[in-house]
Amino acid sequence: MSLTFRLAGLLALAGVTSACGFHLRNAISIPPELNPVRVVAPDPYSPLAETLADAMTNAGAQAATDPTQPATTLQIFTERWGDTPISIDQLGRAQEFSLRYAVIFALVDPQGNVVVPRQAVELSRDYVAPPADSVGATSERELLARELRRDMSTAILRRVGAALNVTHPERRGRDSVIEP
């Protein structure tokens, strides 16, 4: 292929991509006045809290190391899981389930001002679990639970980022990353 043909193809791809509404998503960056940040959950060993703490650190937050030090607090009030059967076989056994994950959280700055008010985020995924394949169903459910936990962390950080764009508009569009 000639170089001209390749360049024309790249330009056409760029044109199509921009025409479909694709754009760079802004990365979340924590303003310095909100540092340090602490993630608090009812379960001190919550995998979601650990994931969120890591993500906040990646967004530029400094972790609060002293529990007596005033800090911005990402408070996770509840984490709820549920399995709901959505289809049954001819013997009345559930074969397909909807795995639901709901979290209620809020973000409060060191002065006690609410940055992100208490709100709920709910995610769900459907999966098939034939009654005869109990080992495979358990592993698929665990895999989906890990995926939902990761997606929940992302959803919470997006909401925090949106709130920060409202309260700190000067930071809007500062850093950009490509996300699907």
Automatic annotation (TrEMBL):
Subcellular location: Cell outer membrane
InterPro entries tied to this protein: LPS_assembly_LptE
Lipoprotein found in the keyword field: yes
Alphabetized UniProt keyword annotations: Cell outer membrane, Lipoprotein, Membrane, Palmitate, Signal
Signal sequence bounds: 1-21
Keyword hit for Ligase: no
A family per Pfam: LptE
Membrane topology classification: Lipid-anchor
Family: Belongs to the LptE lipoprotein family.
Assembly information from the UniProt record: Component of the lipopolysaccharide transport and assembly complex. Interacts with LptD.
Function comment: Together with LptD, is involved in the assembly of lipopolysaccharide (LPS) at the surface of the outer membrane. Required for the proper assembly of LptD. Binds LPS and may serve as the LPS recognition site at the outer membrane.
Protein name, UniProt field: LPS-assembly lipoprotein LptE
Organism: Noviluteimonas lactosilytica
